[in-house]
Amino acid sequence: MPPRRVFAYGTLEIPELVLAITGRRFESEPARLDGFARSMVRGAAYPGIAPEPGARTDGTLYRSVDAASLAALDRFEGDLYERRELPVATAAGERCTACVWVVRADRRDVLTGAPWDRERFRARHLAEWLARTGGPLPR
């Protein structure tokens, strides 16, 4: 399988966590996904997305993600999500297709509508998550 692009909108926007999961660093840049809304998952420290006309989700586009890393990210995301190929746009205006993990249609009742706060996650949960993945603790 050729390398793929991945659009991240939550915990996977944090390069240290991606490194801990995949053992790799990827070229990345800001991007957006139109037509999907991000909100917190009930009882969790992370968000999910679901289709919503007119919505926009800002995130990070990773390039050249190899098959082994993509499989590791699938395992990390688990069965709440399904990986889909969706059109995204970079901050520079490039349009491309990327792998995106979307909350499964039959599980969308877990989305609370509350906003995701990356810095709050980083401050309150990242060290624990890195320890669980076996990755390095942040400096």
Summed up:
The protein is α+β, with helices and mostly antiparallel strands and 139 residues long.
How many alpha or pi helices? Answer: 4
Major sheet description: 5 strands, antiparallel
Major sheet strand order: 1-3-2-4-5
Question: Overall pLDDT, averaged?
Answer: 93
CATH class: Alpha Beta
Radius of gyration: 14 Å
What is the end-to-end distance?
Answer: 35 Å
Strand content: 35-45%
Structural class: alpha+beta
CATH architecture: Roll
SSE ordering: EHEEHEEHH
Shape descriptor: globular
Detail the topology: elements first, then pairings.
Elements: E1 4-8, H1 15-22, E2 28-40, E3 47-65, H2 67-77, E4 81-90, E5 95-103, H3 118-124, H4 126-133
Antiparallel strand pairs: 1-3, 2-3, 2-4, 4-5
Question: Explain this structure to me?
Answer:
With 139 residues, the protein is α+β, with helices and mostly antiparallel strands. The chain has a single domain (4-133), classed as Gamma-glutamyl cyclotransferase-like (Hypothetical upf0131 protein ytfp). The protein is built from four helices and five strands. The protein has helices spanning 15-22, 67-77, 118-124, 126-133, and strands spanning 4-8, 28-40, 47-65, 81-90, 95-103. A five-stranded antiparallel beta sheet has the order 1-3-2-4-5. Helix 1 packs parallel to helix 4 (126-133). The mean pLDDT is 93.
Structure keywords:
alpha+beta; Hypothetical upf0131 protein ytfp; 24% helix; 139 residues; 5-stranded antiparallel sheet
